[in-house]
Amino acid sequence: MIDVQYIIDFIPKLVSYLPITFKIFASSLLLGLILGIGIALPRIYQIQGLRQLSALYISFIRGTPILIQLFLVFYGLPYIVGLFGINISRMDAFYFVIITYTLSNAGAFAEIFRAAVKSVDYGQTEAAESLGMTSTQAFVRIILPQAFRVALPNIGSLAVSSLKDTSLAFSVGVMDMMGRGETLITATMKTLEVYIGLAIIYYLIVLLLEYGFKLIERYYNRHTRMATVEG
């Protein structure tokens, strides 16, 4: 029989480790966005050589489970940099997790960003350049804001997915909410109660995250329409 009191007692103990989960989530999402844009550019501008590497990278990220990627980074990165005489074997597992999720998010962001940019009419770039803008200025001022609006729903979905994926960080020894849950299971043998507590916390966070992205999307769409009318 499920002991509800245990669930109530476990939730505050699990929530106390929420900041670690958020650090992994926020850091990897921001870094992944920046890296993802860089990975997408060779495919957008058809840069030979780099375009193929970008496509291969995205294909690998999309075709392998995040848990496998985590183990590849955790065990493989120390080996690779060790070939150059650098020892990172004692580096905190927390940083390996951030590196993994950054690389994984970058692959997803690259595809989202590429598709969003392609959805914007290229004629707008030509019109901006005819007014004296450089290609970079046209991209930043004209194309990027519109692409961001198109990409927002997919960015929100990726953020939710990334948050849930952070639950695997405990598999390499990071003491986040999931890691704390495993220690509570070991100490109390209340497996179901711990997982119910974790499910409640993750579900509430996801609801808040989805609501936040809906507000951002609504605000951005309204701001874009106002700018268009004023223009």
UniProtKB/TrEMBL annotation:
Per UniProt, the keywords (alphabetical) are: Amino-acid transport, Cell membrane, Membrane, Transmembrane, Transmembrane helix, Transport
Q: Where in the cell is it found?
A: Cell membrane
What's an example GO cellular component term for this entry? Answer: ATP-binding cassette (ABC) transporter complex
Which Gene3D superfamilies does UniProt cross-reference here?
MetI-like
The ABC transmembrane type-1 domain sits at 18-213
The UniProt entry, under CDD domains, shows: TM_PBP2 (cd06261)
Q: Which Pfam families match?
A: BPD_transp_1 (PF00528)
What is the superkingdom listed in this entry's lineage? Bacteria
| GO biological process terms, semicolon-separated | amino acid transport
For this protein, the parts annotated as crossing the membrane are: 20-45, 66-88, 94-117, 194-213
* Family, per entry: Belongs to the binding-protein-dependent transport system permease family.
UniProt cross-references to NCBIfam families, sorted A to Z: HEQRo_perm_3TM
Q: What is this protein called?
A: Amino acid ABC transporter permease
